[in-house]
Amino acid sequence: MMNIKRHVIAATAGVSAILMALTGCGGSKAATDSNGKPLVKIAIITPAATQSVKKMKWTKQLEAACDCTIQWQQIGNDAWSQQKNAALAAGDVADITVWGYNKSDFAKNPLFEDLSDDLDKMPNAKKYFKEDAYAKKFATDLQGRIFQIPSSVYERNTALVGGQTMMINKTWLDKLGLQVPKTWDELEQVLKAFKEKDPNGNGKQDEIPFDINALGTTGIGWWSPFLLLNGTGISTQVSQIGGQGLYVKNGKVKDFLTTSNFREVIEYYNKLISEGLVPADALTKASDKYTAEMQNDGKTARVGVAFGWNTSAFGSGLEDQYVTMLAPTAPGAKTTWESEQPDVYNGAAVAKDSPYKEQAFKIINKWLDPDVSMESYYGDKGTYLVKNGTNDYSVKPAAFKDSSVNVSLADRGLTWMRPGVKLHGVTDVDLSNKEWAIYKDVQPKADSKDTMPSYVTMNDTDQNDVSNRNTPIFAYALPQIANWMQKGGLNDSTWKAYVDKLNSLGLQDNVKTWQKWYDKYTK
Ligand code: MG
User: Fold this and answer.
1) What is the CA(194)–ligand 1 centre distance, in A?
2) Is 354 helix (H, G, I), strand (E, B) or coil?
3) CA quadruple 505, 507, 509, 511: dihedral, nearest 10
4) pLDDT (tens digit, 9 = 90+) per residue, 282-335?
5) How far is the CA of 315 from the centre of ligand 1 (A)?
6) How far, in Å, is the centroid of ligand 1 from the Cα of 202?
């Protein structure tokens, strides 16, 4: 199926290439504006809600820096996903493209300027890579080439947990005279009290002591019940390789699906479900129902413990009742949490055959200026953004006045947010910084040997092989796991059959493949 689709794209791309050649629409023509100034094309890819970049005044600073006119090509998400491969095959790339291309595009298409020897022309980029080792690694391929200047965003700077949070109803705990549970036994006792003692005070036993998400069908997803693995000492990265049932410990890639830790978590959930402390229907529940239960009617809380982004998941009526908590510790273990995951992502790439590379460097350099980076992310200074001091900014309510309009480029622009940035006025950032801080001391650091960095990228062949093995692995494993959680039946012989089956489907081959690429990028 996948191969057929790829073939069709390749054929389409071929036609486009011929058309491009015939009409001479390549990117190398040195266009000028009516005053004879260079006309530099910048492609940006934005969601439909993003207002026209032409209305964003901060972009004038880029034009002043390059003494050129910028011709913006603002492309919608859907249009981009349809045209990207054809444009690459045709060699038709803008002078600068921001966010649109990734490491695997750079590896396959020799269309981009290697910026590694151009950093002297971009002092801000040079400084950036000196101060932000992670961003530099993200930017650099295995041959030492740099095909893009990525963005790096430190707005949530107390703990980089990738949005995975465990939360508990503190109002209920206080009412019952209980503490935040620190161990599996304590959690079980607290959940029993939540179930039996009507902590929401409505005279009904309608409390859901611990609400968990369904397991899904393709892997271990966001806000997975298996975040409890962190209480057994395995640091998960559910939005990354944890999604494939893998983790990194001391530089070694391993799978957690066949560990005794994973088995213990399944058995623990089975106990909680059998005691009515986790709803029996949780594992087949639609995610909108999970959210609806967390928010209930906005007045009476029903959920005691849950996983989510931060307490805003409980809605404005109930969020104040909740606090974040560490993963309770399994017997004999030490708790950890999702490893640090720096928010570094694809940024600016320059066309190799651009007639305006010098101007492009000046534009990129200016875009990495502290204030311009923040304006690109949050909006024009004065109207939307206020600078309070060095690395200290406030976003005005005007920026959020119309929730259907993005006034800035946000993550689709180029931004180097300096570490430790103080940011005021963004409710969700304030909340995350307050609530995620508790994970800081227990989570593995981004530069430790207990995490898979996001800059580790496989080649296409290996990526396809891993993905092709994951399909049957999770098609088999997830229903089996759900069944054990709900109904029990997990014993040494059923466990052995499960482990053997996963290994026969290539789980250890996936471990080896990830190890190979981890080693290439980290050694
Ligand atoms: Mg009640």
Assistant:
1) 9
2) coil
3) 170
4) 998 888 999 999 999 999 999 999 999 999 999 999 999 999 999 999 999 999
5) 19
6) 5
